Amino acid sequence: MIDLNWTVSIQIVNFLVLIYILNIVLYKPVRGMLNQRKAKIDGLEGSVTTANRQIEEKNQAFDAGIKAARMKGQSEKEARMQKAMADEQAIVAEINAKAQKDIAAVKAKIAQDTDAVRVSLETEVDAFADAIARKILGRAA
Q1: DSSP the chain
Q2: Do the beta carbons of residue 134 and residue 140 sit within 8 Å?
Q3: CB distance 119 to 112 below 8 Å
Q4: Can you tell me the distance from the alpha carbon of 96 to that of 20, in angstroms, rounded to the nearest whole number?
Q5: For tag attachment on the chain, is the N or C end more exposed, with fewer CB atoms within 10 Å?
Q6: CB atoms < 10 A from the CB of 99, how many?
């Protein structure tokens, strides 16, 4: 059986002194290091959160810039297409005007040549008529 005497109280005091010494020497420094580590980790997590937010903002700004550049490119493309179409219409109109002018000149030349041929044939109609009549009637001139 166990005897409860004055050594038990010494053991209790010894235990309490040991806990007090261990608390000062071991537990407080370890808790301090753990607290420092936790503070450092919290600071790093805050930095990571800030960096992620900045990255997201930069990505959004980049996406907005790309969208703006695409819209600008599209508007420039449309403006150039409009200008090209206007230039094309001007060139086609110029070519059509030149073609109409050339056609009118050719028609005038044909009309002039037709009149010249008509005049020359009218002067020779009597001679042709006499020649045809002689051949048909069989007379020699």
Answers
A1: ----SHHHHHHHHHHHHHHHHHIIIIIHHHHHHHHHHHHHHHHHHHHHHHHHHHHHHHHHHHHHHHHHHHHHHHHHHHHHHHHHHHHHHHHHHHHHHHHHHHHHHHHHHHHHHHHHHHHHHHHHHHHHHHHHHHHHHT---
A2: yes
A3: no
A4: 110
A5: N
A6: 10
AA letter at 38? K
Tokens for 109?
């030349």
Question: Could you tell me the two tokens for 111?
Answer: 């009309």
